[in-house]
Amino acid sequence: MKLTYRTRSLPLLYLLFAFITAIVLFPILINVFTAFKTPGDLMNSSPLALPKEWNFGNLKSAFEKGNMLVGFKNTGILVLVSVFLNTILGAMTAYVLNRFDFRFKRVIMSLFIVAMVVPFYTTEVARFQIIKGFGLYDSIGAPLLIYAGTDLLQIFIFLQFIEKISSQLDESAMIDGASYVGIFTRIIFPLLLPASATLGIIKAVDIMNDMYIPYLYMPSKELHTLSTSLMSFVGQRASSFEQLSAAILIVMIPTLLLYLFLQRYIFTGITAGAVKE
Amino acid sequence: MSYSLQKKLVVVSFLFVPVALLLLFLLYPSLRLLQFSLTDWNGISKSFHYVGFENYIDAFSNPDVWKALTNNFLYFGIHAIFIPLEVMIAVFLNNKMRASNFFRSIVFMPYILNGVAVAYLFSFLYNPINGPFNALLESLGLESWIQNWLSDKSVVNYSLIVVSLWRFSGLHVILFLAGLQSIPNDLYEAATIDGAGPLKKFVHITLPSISRVMEIVLFLNVRGALQVFDIPFLMTQGGPGLASTTFTVYTIQTAFKYNNYGLASSLAIILMLMIILFSYFQGKLFKGKGD
């Protein structure tokens, strides 16, 4: 509802949003302050106070003791490979579903819809057995396979974008003798790249923040991701809050940076799935 | 190669991997789950016995399961109460206000942060000894409000729900905002000409136009509330006792900690049915309201 406020109510509005900003930022800022305090400083001053001097030692030691380098590496591999597979598979699925009519098309579409209703956490009991059966338990292959699967939201958004690509492009390519695979790789896929970027970023954030699949399927220390590194770090040293805060900060930074620089794409992706029919 | 042969090849080869992954990791496990739920399998041994609906009967007669479900319901209820507030914030954000983009980014930020990090961050905030949250209350002169946020049975769920609100309300606001932005401005202009005031415009234009987003937010709320897992699992392990155990925490512990796959599977199936049922009725509700 576009309204222009009378100047009298505008300050109230700013006050409301300043309050919301404070609620959002308070936990994060307190954590940042704590991450830079020395143990003595933390003991002797209010937990709300700024650090007396900014001490970078906690970050360094949390990074080393928390096995964060391994976490960054594994999370990086998971994100890059899964997003790559995901984008290609999603685009291929959407291409076939949009451009061709064939038997079982409706069945396949409804399978994706059913999959959306199946609660993610609960099928784990059975999925665990399948991963074990493949001999993928405690290997990076397990999450890769699980993340590579496309979801309904993704296919939905790809379908919307393909819809807008005129099929006359396909036809003129066919007159020039292009094959369907050629049409996909040379015309459709390149035109889907902007949509892919948006979806890829959202998927990347999801994977970076996931704890559940790595926790269940990759318990080994060498296979820890950022989330599971943090979990085991906390398990070991729950009481020293300055180091804990430093570790929390390290794990938050990657998605936070991604968010700050690529907000626009994240917003479009999240909202495109929701608003359009 | 003729185009009709090509078409067959493309359809089959392009869909093979995505559909295989879907069947293998989502649909086949669901069917297996149905099978396990009828057995006494412990997850390790090679053999198991079919026990009929015994697990389901156990699940329903187990007070712990009901306790867990009550906790899930609390998440749902409190998130639902916040929906009007979220709509209001979205309406405000949609106005011509300076720094609107900045506030939009702030509101959505918690949703983007790592869930594990957020859970531990709040564990630290709630710390009973010299914890930042209690220090804040003290500095505001509200010492009497100080609690054992995570170890008091009567408080712990609310402490955890606050974390959930902090994390997910921003997503709802942004979804509502997207709904608001898709409303053409002429509608409001026409209403102004017809002499409608702000309240009338809100009731007759804004609310109906965001009903689809409302449906999505409610669906996310049902799904989210029934599946709450990481916040209690990481912050309290469902404790003290079973005070903050949710249905999913209980299911996962039954399976992986107590090796009772049969019972855990039946719990999972029950959860699945609940989600399907709720979504179905909600869909009906919204369809009934539209023309």
- Can you identify the CATH superfamily of chain A? MetI-like
Helix content range of the residues of chain A, please? over 70%
**In CATH terms, what is the architecture of chain A?**
Orthogonal Bundle
Order of helices and strands of chain B: HHHHHHHHHHHHH
Q: Largest interface, by Cβ-Cβ below 8 angstroms: which chains and how many residues each?
A: A-B, 93 and 103 residues
Q: Structural class given helices, strands, pairing of chain A?
A: mainly alpha
CATH superfamily annotation of chain B: MetI-like
Q: What is the CATH class name of chain B? A: Mainly Alpha
Please tell me the overall pLDDT of chain B.
89
CATH top-level class of chain A: Mainly Alpha
Indicate the overall shape of chain A: globular
Describe the structure.
- The complex is a heterodimer of chains A (277) and B (291).
- The mean pLDDT of chain A is 88.
- Chain A has 277 residues and is mainly alpha-helical.
- In chain A, helix 4 (68-99) packs parallel to helix 7 (141-148).
- Helix content of chain A is 75%, strand content 0%.
- Chain A has one domain (68-237, 250-274): MetI-like fold, CATH 1.10.3720.
- Chain A is globular, with a radius of gyration of 24 Å.
- In chain B, helix 2 crosses helix 13 (261-289), helix 3 runs parallel beside helix 7 and helix 10 (211-226) packs antiparallel against helix 13.
- Chain B has helices at residues 3-36, 54-61, 63-93, 100-112, 115-125, 132-139, 156-181, 185-193, 198-209, 211-226, 230-235, 247-256, 261-289.
- Chain B is globular and about 75 Å long.
- Chain B starts with a helix and ends with a helix.
- By secondary structure, chain B is mainly α.
- Chain B has 13 helices and no strands.
- Chain B has a single domain, classed as Orthogonal Bundle (MetI-like fold).
- The longest helix of chain B is centred in the first third of the chain and has 34 residues, at 3-36.
- Classes of the chains: A mainly alpha (277), B mainly alpha (291).
- The interface between A and B is large, with 93 and 103 residues.
